[in-house]
Amino acid sequence: MSRLSLNKGLAQPRIAASRVGIGGPVGSGKTALVECLIPALTARGIDIAVITNDLVTAEDAERIRRSGLIDPARVSAVEAGACPHTVIREDPTLNIEAADELERRFPGVELILLESGGDNLASTFSRDLTDFWMFVIDVAGGDDIPRKRGPGVIRADLLVINKIDLAPYVGVDLERMHREASKVRGDRPVLLTNCRRGEGIESIVDLLEREVLFRT
Amino acid sequence: MLFDRLQTLALLQLGDSAYPAGGFAFSWGLEGLAADGMLASRGELDRIILDQLERRWASMDRILLRQAFRAEDCLGIARVDRLAEAATPSAEMREGSRRAGRALLGVWFKLDGPLSVAYRGLVSSDTRLGHLAIVQAVVGRDAGLSLEAAELVSGWTLVTGLVSAAVRLGIVGHIEAQRSQEAARMLLAELLEETPPPDALPASFTPFIDIAVSRGPLRHVRMFTT
Fold first, then answer.
1. Percent of chain B with pLDDT over 90
2. Can you tell me the distance from the alpha carbon of A153 to that of A121, in angstroms, rounded to the nearest whole number?
3. Which of B14, B16, B17, B24 has the highest number of chain A CBs within 10 A, making it the mutation to test binding with A?
4. Would the CB atoms of B117 and A9 count as touching at under 8 Å?
5. Which of A54, B8, B79, B101 measures 20 to 30 Å from A117, CA to CA?
6. Nearest neighbour of B223 by CB, restricted to A8, A79, A90
7. Phi, psi (5° rounding) for residue B157?
8. ipTM of the complex
């Protein structure tokens, strides 16, 4: 998706916001990552909005709205109709409309985070929906996840391994897990985070600034 | 032959439950009725589909679609769209109809349908516009469908959406779902046999469905937009 788009029906061209997907299994820490990214992106002067795709409740959207980190009006919830894959891949129209609506309401928005509903290792984002997407797994889910080569792990623009602080408690060799993840991804980026303490977040923001916003 | 081959193929494409217009996220009251214990079997599903088709779609959505299909220009279409807004008392039903309509319009905007592109300009500037039945007329015109074909797609996508939602809610399995669709197919064909008078006004009477949709935001556990 080109960042410079001519919005049909309007006389003036405008810069479209970059759309960044965040997918991954249930409980891997996607919402926690969003909560870390909001202040980190805002601190760098990046104008943001958020869309959540909750599976059966508006829990994630409400959590972010009540966090005090962002104007609640900048958080939209899209119901997934029990189809978390469909709403981000085969038929992303509701998410696209939600993102378009956020851009209309907040014309200066530069980056929209789209958090998918918690899913398994097979979810991927449509390129019609996102410019960049990351897949979040966690060490407690098992160090064999990268070796299973799910489409999310392999095809994401960025793989995030979260909850690294738990590695010693769940018998995970973090170094090996990181190495195997890099290997199956052909050395495309793999970053390690501990969202509870904000560790690794700046590296993700650096990458988003460089690869998505082309700021550096 | 009512539809030629090309039009029939277009019908199959646009009426496909996998058509990317967000239809999978709408249960049009089924989720609420199931949560309230009013929908638990195929028989009950069939009765609700009958209600939806006969007492809502045929007397309201179809009428609005026909008016929008015949409107001379975008302003004329917008007048029908505002009628849809005014004739839908439930705020959640209005919101759902607009979200579904805007999603479909967004697809055809990107496909460069000329009327869709022009009408989206209006919809973008007025939050009351974009109701599903009206957008179905706009898209049908862009797709080169006849009015009869556009009506058929509209009625059929309602049926497939309802049955698909029922499967995901665990009310029926895939075989029972086919039986429900077959029954609904007969009913839809019967409804389409009768042509509404040109001055027909949109009206619906589906109180249980309207209440179920309206109660949606009160439910903590919720998979569907409506």
1. 85
2. 7
3. B24
4. yes
5. B101
6. A79
7. -65, -30
8. 0.84
